[in-house]
Every structure is written in structure tokens, then in C-alpha cells.
Amino acid sequence: MDHPTATLSPPSLVASTAGASRSTPDWQRRFAPRVIATDAVIVAAAVFGVQLFWFGPQRLDVSWTPFDYTTLSVFLCAVWMASLAFFGTRSPRVIGYGIAEYRAVIAASTQLFGLVAILAYLTGLDLSRGYFLLSLPVGTAMLLAGRMTCRAWLTSRRKKGSMNTRVVLVGSPDDNERVALDLARQPSAGLQVAGVHDERDGVWSNEDGERLRRRLAALDADTVLVTGGSSLDAQQIRRIGWSLESGAHHLIVAVNLTDVAGPRIHTRPVAGLPLVHVETPRYSTKQLVIKRVFDILGSAALIVLLSPVLLTLAALVRLSSPGPVFYRQERVGQGGEPFGMMKFRSMVDGADARLGELLAAQGRDGTPLFKVENDPRVTPLGRLMRKYSLDELPQLFNVLSGRMSLVGPRPQREAEVAFYDDVARRRLIVRPGMSGLWQVSGRSTLSWEDAIRLDLFYVENWSLIGDIGILARTFKAVLAPGATAH
Prior knowledge:
By secondary structure, the chain is an alpha/beta fold. It is 48% helix and 11% strand.
């Protein structure tokens, strides 16, 4: 193997014409037109729909101008589409990546309407307040729904093996295996492992670069993912980048920062050093107030909307088997404080007395998750309610009273909390939730370690947009429960 200071071959330094045309991943070039078309239809439907709703079908002029509201709507649609492009909502760094994409859409829409409001004030343009104020929230909500629909389509295609970025993993065997398993668990990420390139000695030469390029071509892959820094230092990672064909190949580096979300990571070059700034988790008063207001409004609205369902389920539980309608179980909440979590009773009366016996029979009495497989205590109605998570609807009253949140770590029993180490206890920093990351990421199929990891990720990286995204995935899981619903 050559010495690491050997000169790199010229092809890695000059982008070919073909390579430049492939600077955007293939799946994004195919996905972007679908998103643009969806945005255009939604913006037009929202703006003209609000105009028709507010003014009716008659023609109406904008005050002291030669234009009517139809002309204004056309202009507003064009500017809105331009704003979505200007704020990068369809850029390769954002499109198809979920939360970052939704934030960009919200920023583009709110700043556009802020600018329109300022211009209307400065020019004295008397716009209809109803038309103006309805277009923003309706259009933004529809745009977010459209982007979520496009992302759901993208995820479904990726699960079938298409619309993926084919990557070759470069690193030690252990790092490669770890990252490959993580990517296999998340097909929606769109990174499909095409092969690996093990590096054991941490030295990168011309021959390695040539061999890697040949491997990328043979595997029809266009991306290299460096899986960790245990075997390759910063200089070697730079040399890997130099050895790739500019424009045609892409380089991704898996930074060894677990449970840190994008908004907390900022890169800043200082004296030629690519410094990565990681913000510490913050739980400001503003964040706490926003989350609590969201919980109150959301739980109250759901209680009102679902009141017929709640009353029907209460009657069915009463008629299906002897015992109370509601089941109150003590769980550990925020700060380690116990509280009574409410559920519709889904088991026979007195089922708790048999828990220890059933866990011992299945060899699970020494494990953190007190889950009984094929639990004989569950009633037929209870099994149906559990499948669709209907037994948990009374927890909306726990949310309204402030003991739980709509989204958060799953509240666990005191005996389960006894298994916590100092890291797992960070789950107790926030209120427990009706739904959470682990519930929408595998539910009963997840191990204890994975459940804790997902809950800690939520605690460390909470955001309102993240909560809305989890709730959207929750509704989808409730309406179409898979094999993980027990």
C-alpha cells in the first residue's frame, strides 16, 4: 500500500461533464417534479378556494387599483411558488427529509405573507382581511399535508427498493455493521447499502481510491458513507473525498454524535477547521409554555371530537365483561412523580394480581419491559381496542390535567423505572406522552435499549414541529395498525 502522502490521480480533481450532471441524486431529480406539481395545485386550490369562499363567484375589484381579486390571486400564487423556491423548500438538502422540509415550507409561507402585509400597509392597499388572513393558514396547512403525502409516497417506494441512494460503507468492520443495521431499520431514510469497503489500517492511498471508484461503478452506487472515526482520521477522510469523482459521487460522514438532531448541530469553519458546534439541550420557559398550550388545545379538541367514540366504548366495556369501565394504573411521570394513568379496561377485572405469575411463566420477570405475550387476561373487546389503541383514549384527560402530554416518553411502572440507569432517567425530565417516537417506530417489536434510545432522542431534541410529525404518524398507525400493534 502506498504512503498516505502520495499524489492523487487527476480524475479525482476534475469533474467530468457527465459527473456534473449527476450532482443531484437521481431520486431527487425524479421526486422534485412531483413535489413542484403538488405545490402548484395546492397553492392554486388554497388561494382561489379562499377567494371563492370569501367573495363568492362575482368579480370584485381591489380598492383604488385596476385589478380584481382574481388577478391578485394569480399574482399571489406565482409569488408563493417563487417564495417556496427562494427559501429552498425543494433544494437537495431539504426535499424528502421530513422536519427540515416542513420548517422551510412554514418559513417561506409566513415570511411571504409578512412581506405582503408590509407592502399593503406602505402602499395603502386595502386588502380584504378575511381573504388575506385565511389564505395563509389554509394554504400552509395544505402545503404541509401535500408534502407529507409526497413523503409517504416516497417512503412506500423506498420500502419497495426504489428511489434510494445506493451507498458503499467505508470504515472498520464493526462500524460498517453498526451503520448497516441502523439503515436497514429505517428504509424511509433512503440510504440503501450496496456494499462495504473495510478499512483496518487507517491508511488511504491512490490504489484505495482507484479500487473504491471501481467498486462504486460495479455496484451502481454514487455515494460513499464513512461510518466512523475509529479507523480513519480527518486527513484520511479528506483523501477519500479527493478520490471520488466530483459531481458524480457524494461523500457522507457519520459523525459520532448519538441522539443529536440537526437543529442542534451547526458547522462553522474557523482557521480552516470545520468545527461542529453542538448546542446543549434547552428547556426554556417559552418551549414549556408552547408545549403546554398545544397539549391543552389539542386534548380539549380531541375530547370534544371523540366524545361519541368515548361514550360508545364506555358502554361496550361495561356490557362486555364484569368490572369497572376505566382502569387506573399508577405510572411514573415527570420528575419521578407517580400519577394515575387512565385507560379503558381491556382485561378481566383483577388482572394485575396475575402479572407476576405470567411473567415468570414466560421467563420475562427479570426484564425491564413487563410485556406478556398472548396475554390470556385480555378480553375480546380489549384485544380489538388495543389493536387500534382505543383503550388509551381516556389518557386525553390525563393530558388536559397536566400529568401527561400528547407526545413524550411512554410512562412506565415503578418496577420498570427501577431498571433505569442515570442515562435512562433523563426520560423523566419531560411529561410522559400518549404517543412518542418509540410507539411510531416499532412499538412492541423494539428492544428495551432501542425504546430508551428513541425516548432520549425525543427528550434531547424536542420541537413543536416534531410533535406534530409524531402525531401525524400516530394517526396513521391507529388507522392502519401493522403487526407491531398488540
